[in-house]
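Dear colleague,

Following up on Tuesday's group meeting, I ran the structure prediction for the four-component complex that the binding team flagged. I've pasted the input sequences exactly as they went in, so you can double-check that nothing got truncated or mislabelled along the way. The structure tokens for the whole assembly follow below. Feel free to forward this to whoever is handling the docking comparison.

Inputs:
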Amino acid sequence: MNKKYSMSYETFLKNFKLHISKLGFKNSIQKDYILKILFFSDEHLTAEDISNNIKKEYNIDVGIATVYRTVKFFDEINIINSLDVGDNVKRYELKISEHHDHLVCTSCHKIIEFSDDLIEEKQKNIAKDNNFELKNHTMIIYGLCEDCH
Amino acid sequence: MNKKYSMSYETFLKNFKLHISKLGFKNSIQKDYILKILFFSDEHLTAEDISNNIKKEYNIDVGIATVYRTVKFFDEINIINSLDVGDNVKRYELKISEHHDHLVCTSCHKIIEFSDDLIEEKQKNIAKDNNFELKNHTMIIYGLCEDCH
DNA sequence: CTGCATGCAAAACTTTTGCAAAGTG
DNA sequence: CACTTTGCAAAAGTTTTGCATGCAG
């Protein structure tokens, strides 16, 4: 529980509630907890992780189907990133810090985040050159980390 | 069947056979056909696609388990890229043309390839800065293509 | 109250694996 | 021949879905 954002959880949650009610959807404690776990987690969590962590940290049961439906919903309203690090499971993280990309160790599966303004800039240009309306992007660099080679 | 490489299929196949025999593995007609389909395809194929296309184009049955085992093998010997465009299926392409990345339309799922030297360069630096031995990378830009917005 | 959200269990998919049989070098 | 590879079917794992019930606005 030590992730640092430009925004407190309270502010984030308030904005979120406003946002979904504007869209005509209903909030629920399940959504709150999924959001909370994602907000405070330093990891990239799978749906299973999310459900387990909510149980572990808050002793609340959120069905796995609900987690899947919720992350899909979060994805549709564009507040979440999903990434597959190569093991056929989707992992999720909130899109609240500045955009970043990932370095993944192919041996120990450690994930390191990085960001690079120049690459961000280039990506915008590439989208523009191809007449794409840029929505999102993922970049994963695979390699062997320091400890593994 | 109009993909253009720096190498003919015959040359490619010969190199491949040499390569795997050096590694102590055996070739098979199944591997040949999987390679052939991938070599001549303009698309990013799923395992299912590969099996179906071999049946359709050459009327040869290659079990889906064999396709999965083979693409995994190809991945281990580093001659294939796999990518998940967001639909929980892996798609494969040979690593024979110069490296490129992908623009994916979130509406019609069209895939456009691009490459950018500057980004490639930056990626190398990022790996180096983090003491990673760079092996591979994937970058996907998601957006709405020209036809879809 | 209306209708979206949830939970459960079943279903749908994709991918992996065990084992006997076949094929390669 | 020895040993890898294949095919089949079963298993495993992830994600989706139908439906009755619950809950938010």
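The first helix of chain A runs from residue 9 to 22.

Cheers,
M.
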